[in-house]
Every structure is written in structure tokens, then in C-alpha cells.
Amino acid sequence: MLILGIETSCDETALALVRYHQEGKGEILSEVLSSQIKVHQEYGGVVPEIAAREHMTALPLLLEQVMNEGDVGEEDIDGIAVTSGPGLKGCLLTGICFAKGLSLGWKKPLYGTNHIEGHVLVTLLDNPELTFPHLTLIVSGGHTELQIVKGFGNYECIARTIDDAAGEAFDKSAHLLGFPYPGGAKLAALADAQQRSNFILPKVMREAEGFSFSGLKTAIWQLVNREAKEMNEAKKGEISYAVQEAIIDALIYKLKKAVKETNIQTLSLTGGVAANKALRKAISAIEGTKVFFPKLEHCTDNGAMIAYAAGYRAFKNQRDSFQLEVRPRWPLESLCG
Ligand code: KG4
Ligand code: ZN
User: Fold this and answer.
1) Closest CA to 8 of 120, 119, 124, 98
2) CA of 75 to the centre of ligand 1 (A)
3) 136, 291 Cβ separation under 8 angstroms
4) Residue nearest ligand 1's atom 3 by CA
5) Could you list which residues have their CB under 5 Å from ion ligand 2?
6) What does the pLDDT look like over 220-241, one tens digit per residue?
7) Sequence-ordered list of residues with C-beta below 8 angstroms from that of 57, at least 6 positions apart, any chain
8) Whether 6 contacts 80, CB under 8 Å
9) Is the CB of 181 under 6 A from ligand 1?
10) What is the rounded CA–CA span in Å between residue 136 and residue 160?
11) pTM as predicted
12) What confidence tens digit (pLDDT) does each residue in 283-299 have?
């Protein structure tokens, strides 16, 4: 079964062709991506209206490219999968309208994919040996969640963020240090080069039910302000190290607690922040567990995860109608019905 995946939930337009085999095995024929980072950089963050317009321009070009690279024609496609939420309303709408047009024109079934489910399942696409149940930590620019993955379409939420996401905590700290948007990876690179710090940030969210990075954000803001007069590159490195340590500490604390409580030792880490080397090292060091990661290019938003996540539903012929709507808020666990 050949599925075309379309992702436009935020600032990346991404398309992929995935051949889905029974029992969750998938094979990528081609994948293409156009990042809008440069467009949004001068505003210091994603501007939703501009992002939607950029998707509109990129979609037809990327469609042609992904079909050419996959060496397939419309007659080879068995289904069209598109992110229908969560994400930015206007951006989702652009992708959905495009997918509906293709579905109507090509007479192919339409599947609305949950973006978070895409992030979760792409780890299986890249690691077919990953089994159910497993605990997954989703850490992206917009989401921080800990879920039990019991099977395809079967998820139980253990914790999610009540304010900022882990990626936002990285990016906002990077912004305070003067790095261009999205500064998460730059801050991480400085922190990795540093390896020590004289600054100590508070241990946050230990007793709280969910994730919350607002307290840490305030502490970072106060620290940067305090040091602003004598800020230099060395100090930026030290602050970056302290920030990275504090974010990772909060994530690992919650994950360890969940491992203990659920007695599930198989773990996966996904989302943009899953590219973070120190976080990968820390999660790999949790005793008695085995951790799976998506390929680096599948940590951030991509089309393959959207196509692959629609696969198990396509096999059961659970298609969506043309009434398919934008779902800016769409909790993963609600997929269990
Ligand atoms: O999953 P993603 O592409 O977008 C959302 O769905 O939100 O994640 C993007 C996020 C950004 O916040 C970016 O700064 C962060 O992932 N990120 C990193 C690293 N690489 C990307 N954060 C920390 N360390 C990294 N190496
Ligand atoms: Zn994402």
C-alpha cells in the first residue's frame, strides 16, 4: 500500500511516499522537505499567517519532487495522509485543502493524521524491532508528553506540559542569549562544548503532575539579566550548559518515575529535541531500560511520519470523509476512542 504523507502543521512543509506493509513495516520511497526557518528568523518566531502562505507556495513544488524522486505516478498511490492537528490552524488548513484536492482529483482515500502520533510511530518505522508496550517521551517545539504506547492507535497519557514545551524552553533561553530563532540546537552545541558551569538552575517540576517549564524560564531570565552587564562568549557557554542540564534533569526525573510506576522498560524518544545529544545520553543511561530513537532527520517534522501513521488505519480502511477538519488541539490518547 503506497501512501503519500503531507505535513504542514508548523514551519516545515514536508512530503513523503511510504510503502506500508502489513504489521507496521514501512519503507520510504522518497521524502522531501522545505524549512521556513530563514523566513521566520527576522521575527524571532513562527508567524502563522506567513507560515501558511509559505506552505501554499511549497506544496505543489514538493509534490512534483517527491513523485519524481519516488518514480511513481498518481495511479500508484493508494492513499493521501495529511496532518489534521495539532498545530497552527492556518497551516493545517493549507495542508488539508491541498490533500482534499488531491484526494478528489486522483480519487484516492484521505486520512487525517495526528501529528503527535506521527512523531511517536516514526520511531517504529526506523526501528522495526521496537515492541509494544513502550514508554515514549515526545519532546518537540510545541509538545512535551510522556505516553504509554500500547499498540497502533492505543495510547495512555502519563504527563504533558501545562505551559511551555521542552523545545520552547531551549529556544526561549537561546533567544535570551541572543541566538537567532530557533536557537535550541545552537544552545545545545555550546553546552556540549562547555561541559561544565558555575551557574546552577533550580530543579523544577519534581512534585507537579505534568511538565511545566515556566518556573525554569523565569529562573533563566533572571540569571541572564543578572549577568547581562558582563556577558561574554564564555559566560554564554556556561549558561547554555546550565540550561541544558536543567531541562534534561526535569525530563529524565519524570521519565525515571514513569518507568518505575509502569514497570515498562522499553523506551523511545521522539520530536525535534530528541536530536539533543546530551538528552540521548541521559536517557540511554537509565538503568535496566532499552531506548529507541528515530533517525535524526525524523526527529524534526517530516512527511514520512504522517504517511506511516496513517498506514494501520488504511489497512483497516478507516478513511476520513471530505468533512475532515482542522484540529488545532487533538490529544493523542483521544485516538483510542
Ligand atoms: O518536532 P519539531 O521539528 O517541531 C514541532 O513539532 O514543534 O521540533 C523543533 C524543536 C525546536 O524547538 C528546536 O529548537 C528543537 O526542536 N531542537 C533542539 C535540538 N534540535 C532541534 N533542541 C535541543 N537540542 C537540539 N539539538
Ligand atoms: Zn512536530
Assistant:
1) 98
2) 36
3) no
4) 300
5) 140, 301
6) 999 999 999 999 999 999 999 9
7) none
8) yes
9) no
10) 12
11) 0.96
12) 999 999 999 999 999 99
User: Which residue, by CA, sits nearest to atom 4 of ligand 1?
Assistant: 141
- How confident is the model over 24-77, as pLDDT tens digits? 999 999 999 999 999 999 998 999 999 999 999 999 999 999 999 999 999 999
Identify which of 40, 88, 138, 170 to mutate to test ligand 1's pocket (most ligand atoms within 8 A of the CB).
Answer: 170
**pLDDT band (50, 70, 90) for residue 261:** very high
Q: Which of 88, 116, 300 to mutate to test the pocket of ligand 1 (most atoms within 8 A of CB)?
A: 300
What pLDDT is recorded for position 27?
97
pLDDT grade, residue 207 (50/70/90)? Answer: confident
pLDDT tops 80 at residue 337: no
Give helix 277-284 / helix 233-262 axis angle, nearest 10°.
30
- In the reported structure, the alpha carbon of residue 300 is separated from the centroid of ligand 1 by a whole-number distance in angstroms of 6
Residue 206: pLDDT band by 50, 70, 90 thresholds? confident
**Quick one: cell of 262?**
509502569
Find residue 18's DSSP bridge partners. 3, 28
What is the C-alpha separation between 258 and 88, in angstroms, rounded?
Answer: 30
Spacing, Cα 145 to ligand 1 middle (Å): 14
- Is the C-beta atom of 161 inside 6 A of ligand 1? no
pLDDT score for 270: 98
